[in-house]
Amino acid sequence: MTTQVLETPEVDLVYDVHGPPPTAGGRPPLFMVGQPMDAGGFGALASHFPDRTVVTYDPRGLGRSIRKDGRVDQVPETQAGDLHALIEALGAGPVEMFASSGGAVTALALVTAHPECVTTLVAHEPPLIAVLPDARAAERARAGVRDAYEDAGSGAGMAAFIVMTSWQGEFTDAYFAQPAPDPAAFGMPTEDDRSRDDPLLSDRSWAISDYRPDVDALTAAPVRIVIAVGEESGDTFTARTSVAMAELLGQRPAVFPSHHGGFVGGESGYAGQPEAFARRLREVLGDAG
What we know:
single chain; globular; 10 helices; 289 residues
């Protein structure tokens, strides 16, 4: 693996190139994109593609990618511009892309703005509130996570986030009638850590979950788009957004092993099944390995 930096006026983007360099006539580079996950979350998955050029990166303002624009918000169109710049810098496009969670939203924005950059996109569980029938309730549930975080810090915020993202089905009155979750029940600290800038728990990333995909542009793009969902995700928030997004594109979601973080290794504390996940990704990409 080699680590490189793409310096722009707004951000120094740090990215890692795994495996062999791109070769003429070979498979295109495979980008792995997350949000707010940085490159570190894809180590296990990338290790199962030793024959491919795999590119991972830290989105602006996250991990090693230092912002110089004075902003703290995370906007899909801006992140898509960064991805476009990275693909151009690599000089080996168009690329294949696996993108998960907020990274999947960024990737959909990339395909909308720069469809020439991608051949196949596997968008895994994009958290798109706008595609849900209970969008207003989902926004209220999201605000509850932010409020818990602002009131009592990371432990309370993460406990609220876990409750929200593990809820099965639409956000009904029964969801909002629940008492505030106890962080200790999830192994979280109960004391306020005074943190208020977490991109997952604050409202800094709301532009991602608020993103409204341009279905017409995505349908017209010469890109194979596969919406993916975890087999263990059931009827959770991101499973429902995946099914709804797939329906808008006239398809059914491709089922992948494990859960929302199914590609992550045991080092994360939220281990999925990265080996099985990689096999499924190869299958979807048409890559015999």
